[in-house]
Amino acid sequence: MSPAVRRGDGPRVLMMSSNGTGMGHLTRLLAYARHLPGVVPGVQTSFLSLSTAAPMVRTLGYDTEYLPSTGATGMRSAEWSRFFAQRLHDVLERVRPDVVVFDGTHPYRGIDAAVATFPSTRWIWSRRGMWKPGLNTDQLEKTDWFARVIEPGDLAAPADAGATAALDDPRVARVGPVTLVDRSDLLDAAAARRHLGLPAEGRLALLSLGAGNINDTSDAVGAVSTALRERGIGVCVTQPAIAQRAVDAPDVHVVRDFPIARCFAAFDLAFVAGGYNSFHESLRLGLPSAFVPNTATNLDDQGRRTDWASHRGWAVDLPEVTPATAVDAVERLLADGAALASSAMSADPGNGTPAAASVIAEVLREVRGG
Q: Is the domain of 46 the same as that of 167?
């Protein structure tokens, strides 16, 4: 089949995420996919992901293909680039999407070749802001590969000092903060606890900070866990390995559900990372939170993001976790958490996902002439 030949069936969108071990990029794409049928009846959405979390998407009913990243394959960069370009070509040849939506901050070499080889397919770059100042500026030149750019909004945008913050480009559509879960999706507290298999009574805290040792107070996870448990608050962790270290600890629970945000009402407070998704889910959905920014990220300026939330009175910022600062954060959330969460929800401009889906629909109409 020639690359210029198109099938006669309905509109097709391929969601493509960059690498990683978590669900960040995929979650935004899932949000778009969820809203697309409302603006594009009959749309067929599939996924191509470099994330090891790709199998999760398949369980949600989407055709999903995993394309291993350079780190997952162990290939050298040049070898992987050839591998990536060929795999991408094969997927586009088979799926024949009208539009590809790429979510990531570093569009891979090989996308440009695909754009040239499949001229009937338009590309959209889903590109969150809040980059660390002075970094990744060379990637902005790749905007020319894309028909449009969707920039998911950041509640901390006034603090954004990165390369995308001051861009004035008509190709960029800035939308509100994007979350997969909206307030209307939330289970009530009792239903959420039943769904997660948690105790019906007592205070519970969500602890989602990545890896750590719950028994080591020099570790962020351990310091926070100790502060919570000393106050009779059950600890709910999203990493099974953390709970396995808590031998004979009935107040430590593993919660495994996706998206966990729909069960936020199960928790009285939370300690979460400062990445885009956890930050916006917590604030938009009213979860009293302390944010622990990861300042070692390559690009995401989590420190500025979480500092802004504290400055605005939306959450507790915990840039340095020690036994003492963890205790202070727990006490602050117990005293003021509800008021902080209410303030954050009052500042919420609404979910930007419907607007993002409308941008995708607009490009689809341009492609299909409808």
A: yes
Q: Say if CB 207 and CB 235 are below 8 A apart.
A: yes
Task: Verify that 321 and 224 share a domain, yes or no.
Answer: yes
pLDDT along the chain (370 residues), means of 10: 46 93 88 98 97 91 96 94 98 98 97 98 98 97 98 99 96 98 98 98 93 64 94 88 57 91 99 96 99 93 98 98 98 99 98 99 92
Strand order in the sheet with 148-152: 63-66, 44-51, 12-20, 99-103, 122-126, 148-152, 172-175
Q: Do residues 334 and 215 both lie within one domain?
A: yes
Angle, CA of 181, 187 and 191, to the nearest 5° = 150
CATH at 274: 3.40.50.2000
Rounded Cα distance, 92 and 75, in Å: 23
If we measure between CA atoms, which residue out of 295, 363, 310, 305 comes closest to residue 340? 310
Residue 63 lies in a domain: yes
Residue showing tokens 């808590």: 246
d(CA 213, CA 246): 8
Residue ranges making up the domain that contains 39: 12-178+351-368
The burial class, CB within 10 Å (0-12 / 13-18 / 19+), for 341 is: buried
Separation CA 326–CA 233 (nearest Å)? 13
Kindly state whether residues 221 and 265 are assigned to the same domain.
yes
CA pair distance 143, 145, nearest whole angstrom: 5
Q: How many domains does the chain have?
A: 2
Please name the residue ranges forming H helices in 198-322: 220-229, 240-244, 276-284, 302-311
**Cα gap 133→366, rounded to integer Å:** 35
Residues 204 and 113 in one domain: no
Same domain, residue pair 157 and 195: no
Is 5 part of any domain?
Answer: no
